[in-house]
Write a structure and sequence with these properties.
Elements lengths: L1 H6 L3 E5 L7 H13 L4 E5 L2 H14 L6 E7 L7 E5 L9 H5 L5 E3 L3 E3 L9 H5 L5 E5 L4 H11 L3 E6 L4 H14 L3 E6 L1 H4 L1 H12 L7 E6 L10 H17 L4 E5 L6 H7 L6 E4 L1 H6 L1 H5 L7 H19 L2
Parallel strand pairs: 1-2, 1-12, 2-3, 3-8, 8-9, 9-10, 10-11, 11-12
Antiparallel strand pairs: 4-7, 5-6
Helix pairs in contact: 2-3, 6-7
The structure holds iron/sulfur cluster (2 copies).
């Protein structure tokens, strides 16, 4: 069970991308990482993406001890935003295409964002010299979306909120609790609230939950972990330490800027997360394999990808 993995601190979550609607890529990621021993998969909240992940598990021939989480968010949260280019302002300099970590910008006669590949990291918008890129929230109607996802057979729902609007956060949280009685994950952005308010908010959200039926995502800087450095993972460790010291009745998962250094740095700081979630870095190290047309027909290629993924997964699962 997912709970056992968390209790034993053996849980590794692959973040396929809360906004990643590329079913082919998700299927490949789940195949590679499940063969590498990853036991938890975080997906975009779309039924077709859950199907893609399940196809990945089938391909890997794995039926047990693999768990699926879907990510939902509230207005303004980067996990549910997509970049949109204003063609009137765009001067076709190409910077956004070069900088995009998820190959979501395409150049035809003009620069365009492929919506299904955009993960909302915002790097293009920050670096556009003409402020031609707007980040637009993809609002989700939980009443419509959640029953369809639950019907597919999911194990966890992760709730993302970058907001100081506590009323909005609590209303959405209550809705999720009404629909789903499985494991929930809280991911509240620290940067907007500060430590004190963050702890208060999470504590309040835990009031309606039974002990240890919730994961607190200790987020560093979301979608910042492409580089394998201590610096990128530092904030995730600091946030995990904050929650560990608060002794709340919930599991702690480190995420946001995580990489191969995360568990080592956490250990040096006496932080012991129950789960490590890795997104940008995990996807980056197998990027060439994800693009290979012969991934599923060339055994050597798949084995190679699994070996690379395993070097990351083992850091948590076999520590
Ligand atoms: S960085 Fe901005 S101006 Fe340059 S191509 Fe992209 S959207 Fe256009
Ligand atoms: S840089 Fe980030 S926000 Fe911009 S298009 Fe690429 S994935 Fe989307």
């Amino acid at each position: 069970m997912l709970k056992d993995l968390l209790d034993n601190k053996k849980c590794f979550k692959l973040v396929c991308g809360a906004g990643n609607e590329d079913a082919k890529e998700v299927e490949r990621l789940v195949t590679i990482y499940s063969l590498a021993g990853c036991n938890f998969f975080d997906l975009c909240a779309k039924p077709e993406i859950v199907d893609a992940a399940k196809r990945g598990l089938d391909r890997a021939g794995i039926k047990e001890d693999r768990y699926i989480c879907v990510s939902v968010g509230i207005d303004g949260d980067p996990h549910i935003t997509k970049a949109v280019i204003d063609q009137e302002k765009c001067v076709k300099c190409g910077k956004c295409k070069v900088i995009c970590p998820h190959d979501a910008v395409i150049e035809l006669d003009k620069y365009k964002v492929k919506k299904e590949r955009c993960i909302g990291c915002g790097q293009c918008a920050v670096n556009c010299p003409k402020q031609a890129i707007e980040m637009v929230s993809q609002l989700q109607d939980y009443k419509e979306v959640l029953p369809k996802l639950i019907e597919k057979g999911i194990d966890c729902i992760e709730f993302h909120a970058i907001s100081t609007d506590e009323k909005d956060v609590m209303e959405k949280w209550d809705q999720i609790n009404q629909y789903f009685d499985g494991m929930l994950c809280i991911s509240i952005d620290r940067s907007e609230l500060g430590d004190k308010k963050l702890k208060e908010c999470v504590k309040k959200m835990l009031e309606c939950r039974k002990p240890y039926t919730t994961i607190i995502q200790a987020d560093g800087i979301a979608m910042s972990g492409s580089n394998d450095e201590y610096g990128t993972t530092l904030q995730a460790v600091a946030t995990a330490q904050l929650f560990q010291n608060a002794k709340m009745p919930a599991y702690i998962m480190m995420s946001g800027g995580t990489n191969t250094k995360s568990i080592e740095l956490a250990s040096l700081c006496n932080v012991e997360p129950h789960c490590l979630a890795v997104g940008s870095f995990a996807r980056k190290i197998v990027k060439d394999h994800l693009l290979a047309e012969d991934l599923f027909t060339n055994k050597n290629k798949l084995d190679e990808a699994v070996k690379i993924a395993k070097s990351l997964v083992d850091i948590m699962v076999n520590r």
